[in-house]
Amino acid sequence: MELWLLLSGLLIFIFVLDDLFIDAYSLVMNLRPKRLPIGFESRRSNEVLGIMVANWKESEVLEAMVKTNSRLLADPNVFIFLGVYPNDTETAEIAFRLANSNDRVIVVVNRENGPTFKGQMINEIIRSMLTFEYNAGIKFKGFIIHDSEDVIHPYSMDLYRFGLKTADFIQLPVLSLPRSPEAMVGGIYLDEFAEAHSKDMLVRQKMGVAIPSAGVGTCLSRKLVLEFCKRNQGNLFAKKDLTEDYILGHEAKKLGFKASFLSYLSTESYPDIVSTREFFPNSFMASIKQKTRWTLGISIQGWKQLGWFGSLPQMYFLWRDRKALFSAFLNINCLAVLGYMIGIGIDRLENPILLSWLLTFNLLFMVTRLLIRMRWTYNFYGFTSALLVPLRWPIGMLINSFAGLRALYQHYRSLLTSVELKWEKTQHEFPDAIHVDLPVIAEVKKEISV
Length: 450
Known about the structure:
This protein has helices spanning about 1-30, 60-75, 90-100, 120-135, 155-165, 185-205, 220-230, 245-255, 285-305, 310-320, 325-345, 350-380, 385, 390-415, and strands at about 35, 50-55, 80-85, 105-110, 140-145, 150, 170, 175, 220, 260, 265, 275-280. The chain is of the alpha/beta class. The chain folds into two domains: about 1-25 and about 315-415, no CATH class; about 30-280 and about 430-445, Spore Coat Polysaccharide Biosynthesis Protein SpsA, Chain A (Alpha-Beta Complex), CATH 3.90.550. The strands form three sheets. It has a seven-stranded mixed sheet, with helices on both faces. Strands 6-12-8 form a three-stranded mixed sheet. Strand 2, helix 2 (about 60-75) and strand 3 form a beta-alpha-beta unit. About 45% of the residues are buried.
């Protein structure tokens, strides 16, 4: 029993030390979002960009998303392609109505009934885009992936154009829209994405490893899209990948395409980072379902398809991406260890000093990690939200544990029964544009001339 306690404490120590290494590296290298250069607006170019939005049962949010973002962007060289399914008539009707009122909105009807995988729909949209540009006599400089719940920053298109001058794969930060204090499940995404997309992604870039797509806020160059379509029988994505975006980022790295994570503040106000904002799930089961898909796609499918490749830093980050599977068991084990030690008392163990020191180090390191996460949450969401991080942390751990166990169950059930894994849709919500409490909304009043 004591060996179990020692091994558990050692594993916790290794996992926490792993996160602290990223924190220390970020601090030493002074990695943080930059401010847009003076005169950025005057150097805007007019390359044509296409936004791809895959939709299944999005009738409640699609119209608000397109109207809000069309008003925010005010860019005549941006086209929005809405992918819909023939058996989702409600979403299709809204998409066609939007297209009839805006000639920069184009509807793409999937050849298959839904729901398919998101990657399959994106493949359909890209084929339509290539046909559209041929008929219209234009060429898309960038192919941008977004979802139907996204609030797009007004400077996003300009930043994509800026990034495409030197890179073929561009990811902008993705952050949660603000949540009320009582939204404890939705609030964990405030904390996780504020830290991951303001620190971890910058560390990846600095170390020269693959930049994974977040599934939204991703821009692909024409060169990259055509090369992948050439290699994959006319498809950008494999048809049945659960996290096609994550795998694409690593495949792009393998093929030598340059990736860039562009993290810029558009004003003096720190929260106003050029990013994609959205609401993430706010119910316990919905969050577990979403994170199950992420774990299946990244930790299991990604492991199987990508293997281990590249430099030592690259393989290190592959490990970080895949450790969610192990964390699921470790989190549950931590609770068991804590309960056992409380029940018997640490002084009754044979080697209480060793365990006491290990427990002390782990506790100190975890408190340090908690404070670091609180700092990033504070930067974007303020003091009140930062104070809630310690309460949301255990909820997030519990959700991640259930998601990891559920991902393993679905994976092995699929292997044993030959039943294919299915893409589980996340129920989306879009804020009333009038009530979006974001600095970017202030920018709506400014005309963006290209």
